[in-house]
Amino acid sequence: MSEATRRSLRTLVQTAVALLVALPALVDASGVAASLPWAAGAVAVAAVLSRIMALESVQRLLPRSLRTGADDGRRLAELIRSERRRG
């Protein structure tokens, strides 16, 4: 599984959980203004889940297909440098 697919799956899981938290309020809310705090809450939950899933202890609990490598930051920096050289 490619790294991009892995990251997409992780983001999908995090966003789904955040939306599930906000879903009851979104169903009850009849207007956009009433649902804005819940939308902000969903984004906050997604951000917290993202940070938690990045912890090494949580990485060990995740299935291998959803884990990210410890050297992701280095690989990203190398990719950015190579793209700058090309462009």
Protein architecture, described:
This protein is an all-alpha fold. Helix content is 79%, strand content 0%. The chain has one domain.
SSE topology:
Blueprint: H1 3-28, H2 32-53, H3 56-61, H4 72-86
Strand portion, in percent? Answer: under 5%
Q: Quick one: how many beta strands?
A: 0
Gap between N and C termini: 28 Å
Give the quaternary arrangement of the chains.
single chain
Overall body shape? elongated
Helix content: over 70%
Quickly give the structural class: mainly alpha
Number of helices, where a helix is a run of at least 4 consecutive DSSP H or I residues: 4
Please tag this protein with its features:
mainly alpha
How would you briefly describe this protein structure?
The protein is mainly alpha-helical and 87 residues long. The protein has helices spanning 3-28, 32-53, 56-61, 72-86.
